[in-house]
Design brief:
Blueprint lengths: L2 H7 L5 E5 L4 H12 L3 E6 L2 H12 L7 E5 L5 H15 L4 E4 L14 H29 L3 E6 L12 H21 L4 E8 L13 H10 L12 H8 L11 E4 L9
Parallel strand pairs: 1-2, 1-4, 2-3, 4-5, 5-6, 6-7
The structure holds nicotinamide-adenine-dinucleotide (NAD).
The site of nicotinamide-adenine-dinucleotide (NAD) has 28 residues, from helix 2 and helix 5.
Length: 262
């Protein structure tokens, strides 16, 4: 990296926690943060995938260290243990990415309370808990920090079929904006990235041929996104130099989906 780019975006000596780095998007973001120099904590429930991912990151040259820590983001005790382990290993936290998420496309009248609760628990309560536990550490550390929450197109305007998911992501954006307001005086920035459509485990059952055609008609770029196309935005939001005045934003990375009308 040139000196200038390094000053703007380099994360050497910093620690990034990526919850949901066992998945497509979180995995790409973890790699990007690690390549930018951050010691990177791959976090998720799936030990095998997480351990492999952390090993791959550790093998990168000119990158930060990487490790996997198992944590279910809906468990406050897991999150406390995560923060303790990160503190033991790296001694500081600078960036938190919340990328764990689940989805479903159940017709409205058929949504069972259990399904509603499960999606809300991971997508909204899990982020609330992670922001609370990691946020407390960042406030004590008193050196600022960056929280990046992964929202969705469904948070901006209602998206057909995904009622619970949309409500959870709209709540997530509101929570993030409110935290940005609360923590700006402490130098902790809180932003969302709103991805367009990226094929992944959590949405593969929803992406029927008909749905794919509808999405493509609405996406000026005419294609799905690739997870690594979210990395540049994450590096900008993570950086206390390049992104120093960005807080409370919900940045769409969507091939134009959210700006297309007739
Ligand atoms: N793929 C898309 O098109 C898309 C679009 C908009 C937003 N998003 C959001 O991006 C984020 C990442 O999604 P993805 O597409 O990479 O999906 P993914 O299914 O590949 O990854 C999600 C990861 O979260 C993990 N996870 C689920 N519940 C968890 C919990 N309680 N604790 C810890 N980890 C948990 C899963 O095991 C999985 O590894 C999600 O919040 C999703 O809603 C995805």
């Amino acid at each position: 990296m040139s000196n200038y780019l390094n000053e703007q975006f380099g994360l050497e000596g910093q620690t990034a926690i990526v919850i949901g780095a066992t998945g497509e998007i979180g995995g790409a973001l973890a790699e990007g943060l690690c390549r930018a120099g951050a010691n990177t904590v791959v976090v998720g429930r799936d030990e095998e995938t997480g351990t492999k991912r952390a090993e791959t990151l550790s093998d990168l040259s000119d990158a930060g260290d990487a490790t996997f820590i198992r944590c279910d983001t809906t468990s406050k005790s897991d999150l406390h243990s995560l923060v303790e382990q990160v503190d033991d290993q790296f001694g500081r936290i600078d960036v938190l990415v919340n990328s764990a998420g689940v989805n479903s496309a159940t017709p409205f009248l058929e949504i069972e309370e259990e399904e509603w609760d499960k999606i809300m628990e991971v997508n909204l309560k899990g982020v609330f808990l992670a922001c609370q536990v990691v946020g407390e550490y960042l406030l004590d550390q008193d050196e600022g920090g960056s929280v990046i929450n992964i929202s969705s197109m469904a948070a901006l305007t209602p998206l057909s079929k995904v009622f619970t998911y949309g409500a959870s992501k709209a709540g997530l954006v509101n929570l993030s904006e409110n935290l940005a307001r609360e923590w700006a005086p402490e130098g902790i920035r809180v932003n969302c990235i709103a991805p367009g459509f990226f094929p992944a485990e959590q949405n593969k059952e929803i992406l029927s041929d008909e749905r794919i055609n509808d999405i493509m008609r609405q996406t000026p770029a005419g294609r799905f996104g690739e997870a690594n196309e979210l990395v540049g935005t994450a590096l900008l939001l993570a950086s206390d130099t390049a992104g120093s005045f960005i807080t409370g934003a919900n940045v769409a990375v969507d091939g134009g989906f959210s700006s297309k009308t007739l």
